[in-house]
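Hi team, as promised in this morning's meeting, here are the two structures we talked about. I've kept the exact order from the run log so nobody has to guess. The first one is mostly here for context; it's the second one we should focus on when we meet again. Sequence first, then the predicted structure tokens.
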Amino acid sequence: MAKVGLPYDIDTVRDEWIGKRSDTTRGRYPVEYDAIRRHCHMVEDTNPRFLDPDSPEAQTTHGVVAPPVMVEYFAGQGVWPPSQDGPRLLTQVPTPGDRFINMGNELEFLQPLHIGDHLSSYVKIADVLQKPIRLDPLATWIVTETHFLNQNGDEVAIGRNTLLVHRSPDEVTSGLD
């Protein structure tokens, strides 16, 4: 987090950061059958829509589709070789503290992921607010949205993440920033 000194002006931070978005990055790998098959076998998912292109279930979606939970995998950069992306947008939002807790993730799936799709994504700051917690009256909450797009620019999913950023107990009691 981009730690800032006190006093902290949440209105200025909100005006500057809400709506900011990262560059769009293209996923390293296209949606492919073998990755879907391996995932399904690993989690013991036998849904024919994901595994059997000749099944009636797969025919309703015009062929095998990826389990929706794989959207982040196919839009991501993989673990190797390491990504050379610059600093993440989320870490640039100024906050009084530098300790963070992931408060929750949710994914909304809008369209199926078809074999051959090539996904990309970008992150947008949806909200920044101050909401006190017992530990820190200046706790800052940052809500981001990750927009997942297919090769046609159609949105296939939206991920929402809420992050709580707070100061250490010593910083709170001593008034340090």
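And here is the second protein, the one for discussion:
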Amino acid sequence: MELGYTKRGDKPVLSLQPGELVYTLHYLGEGSELFWYKGQVYSDQISAGKPDPDPPPPQLNVQVLSLPKYTWWAKITNKAGDVGWTNETHKFGNVDACG
């Protein structure tokens, strides 16, 4: 299976064999995850948000065994220019990176 894009966004750079493991580090957004494989990090679309059944259905190219737990933090700046961080983004407006 071909998988993994580098920061340059080139074509897939990994050719994985059945049974090889990649470790998801965290969700990147837009359906992609950052993952680790043999000392390097890559990004690609891997999971659907929950672990897959074991054994997986035959049509799956990748079996997700588990997902990492993480907390999103947002860098905020007030009108005075003070900068801080929060994980309570629901209390603020204009927190979308694309906004």
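Starting points for discussion:
The mean pLDDT is 79.
The chain is about 0% helix and 30% strand.
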